[in-house]
Write a structure and sequence with these properties.
With 67 residues, this protein is mainly beta. The chain has one domain. It has 1 helix and 5 strands, in the order ββββαβ. Strands 4-3-2-1-5 form a 5-stranded antiparallel beta sheet, covered by helices on one side.
């Protein structure tokens, strides 16, 4: 599954603040995500992040790069 900066994802487990929604702030070997409920920022390794994501709720539609 492809993830982009700005995507909002729904995680399998609930954050202690009560929110399931997170915004992707960085992609690569590690992912930086921000809780949409309380604003907490967390870094996760790619493998752990991909296993924890249930679905992509919203995605920014970036224009295709010119060829």
């Amino acid at each position: 599954m492809k993830f982009r900066i700005g995507d909002v994802v729904k995680m399998r487990k609930q954050h202690p603040c009560g929110s399931f929604l997170w915004e992707v702030m960085r992609v690569g070997a590690d992912f930086r995500i921000k809780c949409k409920g309380c604003g907490r920022v967390v870094m996760l390794p790619r493998l752990k992040f991909e296993k924890a994501v249930k679905e992509v709720v919203s995605s920014l539609d970036w224009p295709s790069p010119p060829r």
